[in-house]
Amino acid sequence: MPVSTLTRPRPVHRPAELLAAYLTGSFYFSSPYGTLLADGVRTRVHGSPRRRAAAAARALDEAAAGGVPDPVVVGALGFRPDAEASLLVPAVVRRAAAPSAAAAHPPGGQAPTGWTVRLQPEPDGYVGAVGRALDLIGQGALRKVVLARCLKLTAADPVAVTSLLAGLVRANPAAYAFAADVTAPGDRAPRTLVGASPELLVARNGVTVTANPLAGSAPRAGEASVDRARVAALRDSAKDLGEHAHTAGHVADVLGRFCTDLDVPERPEVIGTPTMWHLSTRISGRLRDPADPDCSALGLAEALHPTPAVGGVPADRALTAIAALEPQDRGYYAGMVGWTDRHGDGEWALSIRSAEVCDRTVRLFAGAGIVADSDPRAELAETAAKFRTLLGALGFEDPV
Ligand SMILES: C=C(O[C@H]1C=CC=C(C(=O)O)[C@@H]1O)C(=O)O
């Protein structure tokens, strides 16, 4: 039997072991397909905006030539196309199956004592910004824009990212959960992007490509009869279906450039997270030219970004409106986080339901898609509900 067809024995890990082995500075990513924990830095990957997949491919080839078996590039990209990125080939990678709801995860959460909370903007400021976005939509300059607001929390003591991550995975075992080191020059302590995103930007496995755009939301009530009514209302809401169509249409158009046999369900379904209900379209296709370097998981993710789940329509005007209407730079929020390997396989999730943690501070964002029929107060309530993913994992009982 030729050596290449032999199966290389791999260490077998359990998902909970990898979660427990996470240390600040490691890279952790778990999804419905598996868990990856990466440690150490073999090579940092630098690339110009929208050309990071090419830089990643070069780094992977160099690592393979240097004797690394099955190298991967892991990390996170910020929201703005020219924003910061933190991509690297790690020294050690461990993999396990997907986290299971039943598994005993290490305890998470942290008693929320002595926190100070700053909202940027204040709720009325956010409502005003949604009003200005509605003016732009009314004038025909925009059709959709996602506006986010920011919570800045400061604790009395350094925030334990290990417990925060464990709390997120325990509460959201089906999510794309992640912790990525995004320390920047000038940071006086490690900075970590941590979160539990419901949204798969794109995954590639061989010739198969999958994406799961979400847009159009309702908060989960936690009471069965109320939630049944909310799900039914969301499924039939013309406003939410329109908001969703922008995002699903963009993803289908971009993937259509690379794929044959693109399967795009006609109507979205409703999926639930522990805090939200979302309209969801699961799109899949077969790559036309799998050897094309632009078709790696990271290349496809760069081609898709920013989808109207985090940007808007038209994309360039939405980015201008976001820069003008949001008082805070988004940093890594609403960018992407994931991994890609030498075969082009990988998974990239949107870095939403996320926070940047640095020493005693936690900076978290939540956004909502604004379309012609949006009600500013309802969009404010939607962002409050989206904050609950992170605030719950931090131990806030009745977050906002
Ligand atoms: C921008 C966010 O969510 C996006 C993903 C799902 C539904 C969304 C919405 O209904 O507005 C957003 O497009 C966020 O959580 O900060």
UniProtKB/TrEMBL annotation:
Record carries keyword Translocase: no
Superkingdom per UniProt: Bacteria
EC number: 5.4.4.2
Entry keyword set: Isomerase
Keyword Isomerase: yes
Catalytic activity annotation: chorismate = isochorismate
Domain Chorismate-utilising enzyme C-terminal: 124-386
MF terms (GO), sorted A to Z: isochorismate synthase activity
NCBIfam families named among the record's database cross-references: isochor_syn
Recorded family membership: Belongs to the isochorismate synthase family.
UniProt cross-references to PANTHER family, sorted A to Z: ISOCHORISMATE SYNTHASE ENTC
Name of this protein: isochorismate synthase
Organism the protein comes from: Actinacidiphila epipremni
